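Weekly modeling sync, notes
Attendees: S.R. (lead), two postdocs, one rotation student

Agenda item 3: backlog of single-chain predictions. S.R. asked that every request posted to the team notebook include the full sequence so nobody has to chase files. The rotation student volunteered to paste the first one in as an example of the format we agreed on. Action items at the bottom.

Example entry:
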Amino acid sequence: MAAPRVFVAGGTGYLGRAAAPPLLARGHRLTMLVRPGSERRVPAGVEAVAGNALDPAAYVHGPDDTLLLLVGTPHPAPWKGAQFEAVDFTAGRAAATALRTRPARHVVYLSVAHPAPSMHAYWQVRARVEALLAATKVPATFLRPWYVLGPGHRWAVLLQPLYWLAERVPASRDTARRLGLVTLPQMVAALVAAVEDPPASGTRAVEVPLIRAVRLADRT
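Predicted structure, as returned to the notebook:
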């Protein structure tokens, strides 16, 4: 029997391109929804489906598929509130609309840690999308990193001494841990683990401490 398919929206970006090789190596079948003309950005071994992630009709997943939602504004910043609404929220709403008429086996959504004392527009949009996805009743996993360190995304490493101090002060410890930094390999491992271990029902949130702790079992 063929492995269940993973249908990916937003897969040609930072995290999607990093996650594709290990998912393929572990036997998953990947299909990526890409804008027409962007098929060349799809990693080798992945099927491409041309479409607009902001349009519910583009989500051609099936009932046995995992729907992996990675659409988002590149390099989020406080002044990108309009883009968060136009891209991040609209794509999440489109996916939720599609799930209401075409349920999937499982939806994995790249959300963000919240609540947070900064980047309000960003995390509030992601929280609203979580609520829309939860309302579909499709089993869902919400991955909630704050910042993922990796190629082209390293400036936040300068904050590590501040995190070290904040985690040692009782009043700021929980916030510092929830908004902690994760590495790209840690994030990829958490994403793969989420795909491979869907909840039986309801929703599951994977926060930064759990993202850091994921260890993938070998698949033979």
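Discussion: group reviewed the output briefly. Helices lie at 14-25, 81-101, 120-135, 160-166, 170-178, 184-196, 208-213.
Action items: rotation student to repeat for the remaining queue; S.R. to check formatting next week.
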